[in-house]
Amino acid sequence: MSEPQAGSAAAKAKRYTGLGLIIALIALLLDQGVKLWVENNMKLGESFEVIPGFFDIHYILNPGAAFSMGENFTVVFTILQATVAVVVTYLLFRRVKIRSWAIVLGCLLGGVLGNLGDRLFREPAFGFGHVVDMFSVTNFAIFNVADSFIVCSMIVVAYMLIRGINLDGTIGDKPKDGESAGDGDDPQKPVA
């Protein structure tokens, strides 16, 4: 790759990093804004119907993970979320070279940071905080904006991985040493 092309690729990668970080910030602010609104306008445990028999706004504090599982392991979730935030940030800065990965990882990072912020800075203690949840779907779960960003981004991550879309925009596995890039066969291996 020539020097101007390398500079152009680096500038593009930085732009995608910036895009991912902006999306993460928007997701984080949206999540925290909705949580703040709920805390200021509802009493803990209060609920009101939005779509009868299907969807309510129900203010709860969740010490556990999804579906309130693992309520006694809050600090474990805090550590896991912090780890995910660090890994996703690393990927955004060092590995992502295409817009689609920047967008999906930005959504994931924003969602993780939204819930991590609750774990770190809400009662009862640093690292043991309860997550504010408010969206209640009948016979399903109560969740928040951050949870929505996490779940939706993970669905897209799974789709992109199944399709073989790499963080640098290439498709599929890279040829191993000794393999031809065209047919994937090992040149040392006899063809049957």
Sheet of most strands: 4 strands, antiparallel
The gross shape turns out to be: elongated
Please give the number of β-strands: 4
* Adjacency order of strands in the biggest sheet: 1-2-3-4
Strand content: 5-15%
Count up the helices: 4
Judged by helices, strands and strand pairing, the structural class is alpha+beta
How far apart are the termini? 37 Å
> Radius of gyration, rounded?
21 Å
- What's the mean pLDDT score? 86
Helix share, percent: 40-55%
- Say what oligomer this is: single chain
Written as H for each helix and E for each strand, in order along the chain, the element string is HEEHHEEH
Provide the low-confidence segments as ranges.
183-192
Task: Give a structural overview.
This protein is of the alpha+beta class and 192 residues long. Helix content is 53%, strand content 11%. It is built from four helices and four strands. It has helices spanning 3-41, 74-94, 99-121, 145-163, and strands at residues 47-51, 55-62, 131-137, 142-143. Strand 3 (131-137) and strand 4 form a beta hairpin. Helix 1 packs parallel to helix 3, helix 2 (74-94) packs antiparallel against helix 3 and helix 3 (99-121) packs antiparallel against helix 4 (145-163).
Strand and helix layout:
Elements: H1 3-41, E1 47-51, E2 55-62, H2 74-94, H3 99-121, E3 131-137, E4 142-143, H4 145-163
Antiparallel strand pairs: 1-2, 2-3, 3-4
Helix pairs in contact: 1-3, 2-3, 3-4
Question: Brief description of this entry?
Answer:
With 192 residues, the protein is an alpha+beta fold. Helix content is 53%, strand content 11%.
